[in-house]
Specification:
The protein has 98 residues and is mostly helical. The chain has 5 helices and 2 strands. The longest helix has 13 residues.
């Protein structure tokens, strides 16, 4: 019997990752963040998973080739009211306006 963590299944926009705490899972999440077809909320949710796993926002920004402020702003969208998040999901609102 091993002491490995229980696998966790994460799914959004066709991206599925098993074992959210593993290094490979983090790499897969970062790869998925490079996809152009993620909506702003799904992108922010993926960033949240990576950051919650222990990766610093600055490191995530470096891996994605974006400014640390972009990561911070994307994560802040997750604190927006549900109506705002729905508008972002539906493409009725851009992240710059949220």
């Amino acid at each position: 019997m091993t002491d490995s963590p229980t696998p966790v299944l994460l799914a959004w926009s066709g991206a599925v990752v098993v074992g959210a705490g593993s290094q490979r899972s983090i790499e897969q999440l970062v790869e998925n963040l490079h996809r152009a077809d993620l909506n702003p909320i799904d992108r922010a949710r993926a960033m949240r998973v990576v950051v919650d796993s222990g990766v610093k926002q600055a490191e995530l920004a470096r891996q994605l080739g974006i400014a640390p402020s972009t990561v911070a702003n994307d994560l802040a969208m997750l604190k927006a009211p549900e109506k705002v998040q729905t508008a972002l999901l539906e493409g009725k609102l851009t992240p710059a306006h949220a």
